[in-house]
């Protein structure tokens, strides 16, 4: 029986014909990487290939690695297998990976979203026979509002907090979400202060995207100068000694999980903004339809529910287990919290 072009193994998603892995979760010789989040881009592989814009991110997070870059829509061949990277719209430098061999085409999305965030190259649908999709928010209950409305709410929240003399603290992942937030803040309200984990990545990404001025918080930063302004920090900064010294403040989290009732209360957050770097239910369905695919493999998230629904639509859909985390706390950020 012919092996599938992409196989799910204990090391990760494997293309046997080319002897390469896509976003492997164990160390391998050659890894093709969709984006820089720690669950998809891990240290320890002998060599890496990724989009050029993702290389500075990978080097910042992984150190001195053997990595080469490709542009979007640029094809390259490994042992008669044709590969190319295409925009995923997830975070800056994020890609889908197209794999073609003997007329058969697979697309691995990594993580992706359809809503344009203003900092990432927008998602590009790619025709394929088989489509590997995350489904972090693969439930009909998840339906995102236009981001313009969400940022109007965020800026109004900041303005209200400032009016009563309180600092606004907004949590978002240091890679991608934080820069998306910063890009759309109304700087006429005040200044933007950043946790070191966020500012370190701001410095990397300013080479690619235009961001408003931000001020790194250091040991010398005076609490009085921050009052009434806004702090952008990773979720792991919540409840720390680092944060408590900036009281009085009001906290908020920007995450797709804020769509769940009780999520804000469970996280002991004052305010929740529903803002995700992943597709909602309808965006997943739209993306899959646009590929013209016949087979769908659903991975991290609500994979069982989502694949069952796809089968009712006539797709040949199944699930596979991975070690990707979707929109959960990036383990790397845990180690950055005290920077």
Chain-wise SSE layout:
Layout: E1 7-8, E2 13-15, E3 20-22, E4 30-32, E5 47-51, H1 55-62, E6 67-70, E7 76-78, E8 81-87, E9 95-101, E10 104-108, E11 130-135, H2 147-163, E12 167-171, H3 177-183, E13 192-194, H4 196-205, E14 215-216, H5 223-226, E15 230-233, H6 241-244, E16 249-254, H7 263-266, E17 271-273, H8 281-291, E18 295-301, H9 303-312, E19 316-319, H10 331-336
Parallel strand pairs: 3-4, 4-5, 5-6, 10-11, 11-18, 12-15, 12-16, 13-14, 13-15, 16-17, 18-19
Antiparallel strand pairs: 1-2, 2-3, 7-8, 8-9, 9-10
Which key phrases capture this entry?
339 residues; alpha/beta; Metallo-beta-lactamase, Chain A; Rossmann fold; seven-stranded mixed β-sheet; 10 helices; 24% strand; disordered C terminus; Putative mRNA 3-end processing factor; RibonucZ/Hydroxyglut_hydro; MBL; RNA endonuclease activity; Xnuc_lig_assoc
């Amino acid at each position: 029986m012919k092996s599938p072009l992409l196989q799910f193994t204990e090391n990760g998603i494997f293309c046997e014909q080319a002897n390469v892995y896509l976003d492997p979760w164990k160390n391998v010789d050659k890894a093709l990487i969709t984006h820089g989040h720690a669950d998809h881009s891990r240290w320890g592989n002998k060599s890496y290939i990724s989009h050029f814009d993702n290389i500075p991110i990978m080097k910042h997070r992984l150190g001195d690695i053997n990595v080469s870059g490709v542009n979007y829509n640029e094809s390259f061949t490994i042992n008669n297998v044709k590969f190319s990277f295409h925009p995923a719209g997830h975070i800056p430098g994020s890609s889908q990976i197209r794999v073609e061999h003997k007329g058969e085409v697979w697309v691995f999305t990594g993580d992706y979203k359809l809503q344009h965030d203003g900092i990432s190259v927008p998602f590009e649908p790619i025709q394929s026979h088989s489509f590997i999709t995350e489904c972090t928010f693969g439930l009909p209950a998840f339906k995102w509002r236009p981001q313009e409305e969400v940022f109007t709410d965020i800026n109004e929240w900041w303005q209200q907090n400032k009016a009563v003399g309180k600092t606004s603290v907004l949590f978002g992942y240091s890679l991608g979400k934080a820069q998306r937030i910063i890009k759309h803040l109304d700087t006429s309200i005040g200044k933007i202060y950043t946790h070191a984990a966020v500012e370190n990545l701001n410095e990397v990404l300013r080479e690619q995207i235009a961001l408003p001025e931000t001020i790194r918080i250091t040991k010398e930063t005076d609490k009085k100068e921050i009052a009434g302004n806004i702090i952008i920090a990773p979720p792991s900064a919540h409840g720390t000694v680092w944060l408590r010294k900036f009281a009085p403040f009001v906290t908020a989290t920007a995450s797709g999980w804020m769509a769940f009732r009780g999520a804000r209360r469970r996280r002991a957050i004052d305010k929740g903004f529903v803002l995700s770097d992943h597709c909602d239910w309808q965006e997943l369905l739209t993306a899959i339809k646009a590929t013209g695919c016949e087979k769908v493999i659903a991975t991290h998230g609500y994979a069982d529910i989502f694949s069952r629904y796809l089968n009712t639509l006539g797709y040949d859909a199944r699930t596979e287990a991975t070690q990707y985390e979707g929109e959960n706390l990036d383990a790397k950020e845990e180690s950055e919290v005290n920077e």
